[in-house]
Amino acid sequence: MARVAVVTGGTRGIGEAISIALKQAGYLVAANYAGNDEAAAKFKAETGIAVYKWDVSNYESCVAGLAQVEKDLGPVDILVNNAGITRDAMFHKMTLDQWNAVINTNLNSLFNMTRPLWEGMRARKFGRVICISSINGQKGQMGQANYSAAKAGDIGFVKALAQEGARAGITVNSITPGYIATEMVKAIDPAIIEKSILPHIPVGRLGEPEEIARCVVFLASDNAGFITGSTLSANGGQYMV
Ligand code: CAA
Question: Which is the closest atom of ligand 1 to the Cα of 188?
Fold first, then answer.
């Protein structure tokens, strides 16, 4: 029986590539999304992957959404916490709404999504939790106090939970992408990308979503059973830890 994987924010950007790569690797995939019905319908039509709409910043919505996925596809073995937003602003201009939106969607979602699945993974003695953090959670980024805080939080969450899951056959890892060619990065002023970002990437280009998806497929596999609590950097050499 194919293992079931849930990818949050799984219909666009890095998440879309992850959903497709997991399907190609033989998993039964559920792609969650929050709001863009049009993009989700197009994704579903093109890939044949099931899509589920709920807001990962809301705990009750996650419980209900995951219950529906498990009813339709079976128990979830692989969770990819990928959904994320930016509300960039220099801190002296940042509003409480910008702070809360990013912390709720990017960090509180880890509890909301992982907690409802955790006991089932423990009972079945198998699980893979993969959190898509960011280079900016490792090095910090001007204009992203909210996002950097949330993404650094991802890494702490993973390291704590990895210790709890280890004896139950559950691995918990984070991936820290650098600047990947998605709508999120393309939303940055092109002048800033040219002047302030690209010169700091030794490979000399943005990453591709598929380059992150391949990391996920590896961490989800049986071959990665001894890897837990790790932070896998995929950033073109921009930041080395
Ligand atoms: N790296 C280095 N320097 C940066 C920078 C960056 N990422 N972003 C901005 N700067 C510099 C600008 O070049 C500018 O320098 P100068 O004064 O020398 O021209 C200075 O910071 C101030 O920037 P702005 O004039 O643009 O200030 P603003 O208040 O108008 O806008 C901002 C602030 C909204 C944060 C805007 O600068 C911006 O969008 N910056 C990009 C921030 C960024 O890198 N976000 C990452 C988004 S992608 C993502 O988050 C995915 C991921 O995980 C990597």
Answer: 39
Measure 75 CA to ligand 1 centroid, in angstroms. Answer: 42
Per DSSP (E only), the strands in the chain are: 4-7, 28-33, 50-53, 76-81, 127-132, 170-177, 231-234
Which residue intervals of 125-230 are DSSP H helices? Answer: 135-139, 145-165, 183-186, 190-192, 209-220
What distance in angstroms lies between residue 87's CA and the mean position of ligand 1's atoms?
A: 12
**Is the minimum distance from the CB of 181 to ligand 1 under 6 angstroms?**
no
Residue nearest to ligand 1 atom 42, measured at CA? 143
pLDDT for residue 104 is more than 90: yes
Average pLDDT, the chain: 97
Average pLDDT over residues 216-241: 97
Residues 30, 157, 62: CA angle, nearest 5 degrees: 35
Burial classification of residue 157, based on how many CB atoms lie within 10 Å of its CB (0-12 exposed, 13-18 middle, 19 or more buried): buried
Q: Residue 79's beta-bridge partner residues?
A: 6, 129
Q: Output the pTM of the full model.
A: 0.95
For residue 72, count other CB atoms closer than 10 A to its CB.
12
In tens, the pLDDT along 56-83 reads: 999 999 999 999 999 999 999 999 999 9
162-177: average pLDDT: 98
Residue ranges of domains in the chain, CATH in brackets: 4-234 (3.40.50.720)
Atom of ligand 1 nearest to the CA of 191: 13
Q: Does residue 147 carry a catalytic annotation?
A: yes
pLDDT at 1: 82
